[in-house]
Amino acid sequence: MNDTHLRASLEQKPITEGTLEDLHELLQAACNLELWTLPLYLTALASIREDRSSVPLPAPLRDKLQGRQHDSTVTRLVLSVALQEMYHLQLAGNLTRIFGQVPRLDWPRYDGGIPYIHPQPSGLTVKLGKVTDPDVVAVMVAVETPDDYASGNLAPEAPDVPAYGTIDTLNGQPAYPSIGALYSVIVQLADRFRGAMNAGAPQLANGLFSLWYDHTGLINPSSFDDAANIIVDQGEGAIGSQFAPVNASDALPDQRALKDPFFAENHWSHLERFERVQSNAARNVLTWPTNAASDASPQQVLSVLFSALLQGMREGWAGGKPDLRPMFLLRAALAQVYRSGQIPHFASVDGSVGFEDAVEALAPAQGACWSEHVQWFFALTDIAAMKANAVREPDLGDHASVRQHQDAVLQTVQGEQMPPGELNRWLMAQVASFRSWDGS
Questions:
Q1: Distance from chain centroid for Cα 361
Q2: Partners of 386 in the β-ladder
Q3: Angle, vertex CA 223, rays to CA 221 and CA 226, nearest 5
Q4: What share of the chain is helix, strand, coil (3-state, %, to 5)?
Q5: For the chain, give me the number of helices (H) and strands (E)?
Q6: Which of 40, 91, 188, 204 has the fewest C-beta atoms lying within 10 Å of its C-beta?
Q7: What H or E segment, with its residue span, contains residue 243?
Q8: Mean pLDDT calculated for residue range 136-144
């Protein structure tokens, strides 16, 4: 990633001497690193109160879109990355699960450096904060910056990119110059230990991601390398062309299909999107004002929901029926913290607020500038598309039933004037009733 610090303090050994236990630790590190990005990106996203930014799309892409979209915004750029990071966490968790491990999902901390990345730029200040804070965006850029290594099966997209050559640790923890280097080692070790793969291990799969991207998110021995490459390609752009490159004959999705609403933004890597955020966030983006408020209750509501979500994912990957309802309440919880005059800091749970109390404390957030796509994704689409604990490949052919249910949800939300506080309870009931949508 950077050469600002020497790597002489690392302990290194050849990949040929790597063990299955080394692979397990690297996979856990990948899960933790993907998880670590989410509070960082979502906190920056939630800080936006009004967004009048305009980020021009490349002319070839505008031509392909035939007038449907001419530019992007800071909100759309950050949101599109956050959604793909959720996909990457799903992929990393499933990569881990196929090798017999349940992702630990360690609680992320933002009081030091970027975990597992070494070296890091000198002067980097790691913290949660607003999208208009240059220090915050600098961390977002640093996380997604590639070095000279890519992951997995490098041909044909990047035949000249070398694989990373050693297993590196610093103070007992994996340490690599980029996310791509980390996944490069994971793929090489996975190739050595393919006999340990268990394709029948419980996995989590979001049906939406299956429709948006070529890869369903469910891992088997033949798709392991592809999944790792997707993570690096979408993030750092290190492998080569993004999904559906502008000059591809099929680059424009069928508008009648359930396709990626951030098709345009996703032609840029995460790094390229954050570089554009860096250039545009200080102009025409209004964030929530913050002060010295010290009310711990909104922070604990957020932390309780986040903790419950992590536990639900652990239970799903362990083979249980996960409770993923907290996923649909994080938006309101983040907005509530900002409305209290504070920046969300994802503090550890102190026991002062229970889960049901956290739900009751949330009212639908008013005034937070979340685009229609945020509401659409978090509150509506995922209800119809979530397929948790999917051991088998989901049926991706029955798109009509997904669309029909989405239409019904939209009509219910748009056709009923729900009193304050009722929307969250209604959504949770919808999610609870939909947990067995795939017939299991």
A1: 26
A2: 206
A3: 135
A4: 45, 5, 45
A5: 15, 9
A6: 188
A7: none
A8: 96
Report the candidate in 40, 8, 182 with the shortest Cα–Cα distance to residue 125.
40
- 163 DSSP 8-state letter: P
Q: How far apart are CA 260 and CA 62, in angstroms?
A: 16
Task: Answer for the pair 344, 38: CB distance below 8 angstroms, yes or no.
Answer: no
CB neighbour class for 432 (10 Å; exposed up to 12, middle 13-18, buried from 19): exposed
**Residue from 76, 235, 73 nearest 142 by CA:** 235
Beta strands in 185-300 (DSSP E): 205-206, 285-287
Structure tokens at 98: 């196929």
- Secondary structure in 3-state letters for 23-40: HHHHHHHHHHHHHHHHHH
pTM attached to this predicted model: 0.81
Backbone dihedral angles phi then psi of residue 124, each to the nearest 5 degrees: -70, 125
Per-residue model confidence as pLDDT tens digits over 142-157: 999 988 665 544 433 4
Summarize pLDDT for 334-356 with one digit per residue, the tens: 988 998 999 999 999 998 888 88
CA 11 to CA 173: how far, in whole Å?
A: 10
Tell me the three state secondary structure of residue 387. strand
Handedness of CA 171, 142, 47, 324 (dihedral sign): negative
